[in-house]
Write a structure and sequence with these properties.
Radius of gyration: 25 Å
Number of helices: 7
Shape: globular
Distance between the termini: 35 Å
CATH superfamily: TonB-dependent receptor, beta-barrel domain
CATH architecture: Beta Barrel
Helix content: under 10%
Structural class: mainly beta
Number of domains: 1
Length: about 675
């Protein structure tokens, strides 16, 4: 029975090869964009003025809805693994988080429709069936710092998940999927959306996503040698709902995100049974651009955000069965006023100011909630003010982007970060030279435990070149040097738990990417490499604590030095397409437990190959009905998420084994004649 759904799906896909009876009655499909058209689409992700990805003053990646759906991405892990420089590591308490260019857990700002989504207590964001990929319009990525425009959390990279709104939905859509492994289910999801475009200017929408999945179906062995089956102990339950309206460039939206991560692995020693770590976010935001003149636009934005991160209920800490509960509420109010002014055809200015107020309410229902939490109720308040400005000067020789941001935090002090970017496009060739300073203020828990902690500082130097060999084929390459100073590090010693500004780390590397697109589909391939040029942050390095030497070659814990990704979509017949994905990762370092001296036992994980294949058929029997079937981890590779830092020799968390997935979706478009 475990493979039945997948077999049935492929049979139905075969039946669908026959021309459908309504084919001649359909409206003509819009002509697919060429690769040249796609590269010439404009975005203001990295600048106040909308520019193409080749012109933008940053290394930009944009993944379209078409690309995400064509390869059958199950969640944002599948999506971001397609992008050069990105990878994933495990953390404590069963969490899996994002890494970039050798750095784990710091400096990657993830947003949903421009709203920050990292939790503010420690700065984490859990991945794994968290966001509804079926409802994503595109994913916009800055592969580099974005502090000038996006503030402190954008220290190394920016990821903006743009959801479908009323104009894109303009109808009703429902999608269900079921993925089965050899031991349990992998992903079981329900997506539902409704949107109405009343005019070219006004639309409304509502959507929901309910997901059930498992982090893994394999056995996990903790640092003391205790093993358990992860299938019932690593369940992930997700609820993501949206309600919004758009009028011209103005918007109002409410997002509710409920993410429950079941785990037993804790900090290294496993618990006797699984507990739930819950992350709740409620976000209400609005913006209203005002066009003062044809050349000057002023945009006020307001955002209200409430989070309940790391909520623990009925947690057993020891063999005596001492139970504890915690509920920490984080409220943030943000006001932003920005202006865009075209002083001339060749000179554009972006400037603004931002203010936010943070409140952290530690409502503790029992003592010893987690290792770092206080033992009584605490209420903390912080506020932060920043001003930023950026100018773009376009000229026949080289375009110059010059900007900076000054931020004053009520407790952590001030930061100033400038940036200078030179870009130019010569017909088929382009180049970019970028120097960015960036920063990251301490998170709330660090400020509570260590009130004198200061912000981190980073410096990024990067070069990118690209060449369009034809309207169908494009290649780009970039080299980078990324250094982190004044890093915020957690330490636990004889004096207790505290955070310190200690250590500097520098990574260097390069990334290559090629894109090909034709009438039959598309193919994208990329290669990522990084090396640790210097580091004195030992808990992120592969240290053999018995000898004091490193056992990895210029790498960080848990992260491969090399990554190759290839993904595409091929139209094989009528409305049937097949999307293969290949991901290869080199060896990764980590630990497998503790030895008799209570030192972590070094381990080198072998290279991993992940092969996925997804088949998709549109308008199966009736218009709007689509069927998908996929096999993920086709080779059944024993992949695992390595720890991004040393925690009592905590071993890597296993990934899912081979998964067979079946997906059925229906979309009814208003006014389409369906």
């Amino acid at each position: 029975m475990k493979h039945l759904l997948c077999v049935l799906a492929f049979l139905l896909l075969g039946l669908g090869l026959a021309p459908s009876s309504h084919a001649n009655d359909e409206k003509a499909e819009p002509e697919a964009l060429s690769l040249e058209d796609i590269l010439n689409l404009k975005t203001n992700l990295a600048s106040g003025k909308a520019l193409t990805t080749r012109e933008s003053p940053a290394v930009i990646t944009i993944l379209s809805r078409e690309e995400i759906q064509a390869v059958g991405a199950r969640d944002m892990i599948d999506v971001l693994m397609l992008v050069p420089g990105f990878n994933f590591c495990s953390d404590v308490w069963g969490l899996v988080g994002l890494s970039f260019r050798g750095f784990y857990g710091i400096g990657e700002k993830v947003m949903v429709d421009g709203a920050p989504w990292d939790e503010r207590l420690y700065g984490n964001l859990g991945f794994g069936n968290h966001f509804p990929v079926q409802q994503i319009e595109r994913v916009e990525i800055i592969r580099g710092p974005g502090s000038v425009l996006y503030g402190g959390q954008a220290e190394f990279a920016v990821v903006n998940i743009v959801m479908q709104h009323g104009a894109e939905i303009d109808g009703v859509s429902v999608a269900v999927s079921d993925g089965e492994t050899g031991n349990t289910f992998g992903h079981r999801n329900l997506n539902a959306s409704v949107g109405k475009k009343f005019s070219k200017d006004f639309s409304i929408y509502a959507s929901t996503f309910v997901g059930y999945s498992h982090r893994s179906d394999q056995n996990y062995t903790d640092n003391s040698g205790i093993s358990y089956q992860m299938a019932p102990n690593s369940a992930i339950n997700s609820l993501f709902a949206q309600l919004g309206a758009d009028y011209k460039d103005a918007s109002l939206r409410l997002i509710v995100d409920h993410y429950v991560n079941m785990e037993r692995d804790q900090y290294g020693y496993s618990l006797p049974y699984a507990i739930s770590d819950t992350f709740d976010t409620y976000d209400l935001n609005a913006k209203y651009p005002v066009h003062i003149t044809p050349n000057f636009t002023l945009t006020p934005k307001v955002e209200l955000s409430r989070q309940y991160p790391w909520r623990v209920d009925d947690m057993t800490l020891d063999s005596a069965g001492n139970a504890t509960e915690s509920k920490i509420r984080l409220d943030q109010v943000t006001a932003n006023l920005s202006g865009n002014y075209a002083l001339a055809d060749f000179l554009h200015l972006t400037a603004g100011l931002e203010y936010y107020w943070d409140t952290a309410d530690y409502d503790l229902l029992a003592d010893n909630v987690v290792a770092l939490a206080p033992t009584s109720d605490v209420v903390l308040n912080f506020h932060d003010t920043s001003v930023f400005a950026e100018a773009l000067w376009e000229n026949p020789y080289v375009n110059v982007t010059l900007g900076g941001r000054y931020e004053q935090h009520s407790q952590a002090g001030s930061s100033f970060v400038p940036r200078l970017v030179l870009t130019h496009t010569f017909d088929k060739f382009h180049f970019k030279a970028m120097v960015d300073k960036a920063y990251r203020p301490p998170m709330i828990e660090a400020l509570r435990i260590s009130p004198n902690i200061l912000p981190e500082n980073a410096l990024s130097t990067e070069l990118e070149v690209g060449y369009m060999f034809s309207p169908k084929f494009f290649v780009s390459a970039n080299v980078f040097d990324l250094s982190l100073a004044n890093a915020v590090i957690y330490q636990f010693d004889a004096t207790g738990a505290h955070y310190v500004n200690a250590g500097n780390t520098e990574t260097q590397g390069f990334e290559l990417e090629g894109k090909y697109r034709d009438s039959w589909g598309f193919l994208t391939a990329n290669y990522s490499f990084y090396r640790v040029a210097a580091s004195d942050i030992t808990n992120s390095l592969p240290v053999d604590y018995n000898s004091g030497n490193l056992f990895g070659s210029n790498t960080m814990l848990g992260l491969p030095q090399h990554k190759i990704t290839a993904a595409g979509s091929f139209k094989v017949w009528n409305r049937l397409s097949v999307g293969p994905t290949l991901i290869w990762m080199s060896t990764r370092t980590g630990y497998s437990g503790l030895d008799s001296n209570q030192n972590p036992i070094p381990v080198i994980m072998p290279p991993a190959i992940l092969l996925h294949i997804f088949a998709h058929y549109d308008d199966l029997f009736i218009k709007g009905l689509s069927l998908g079937a996929g096999i993920y981890n086709l080779a059944n590779t024993a992949n695992a998420f390595g720890m991004g830092y040393s925690s009592l020799g905590k071993p890597a968390l296993p990934d899912l084994s081979r998964e067979y997935l079946f997906q059925l979706a229906y979309r009814y478009q208003f006014g389409s004649g369906s």
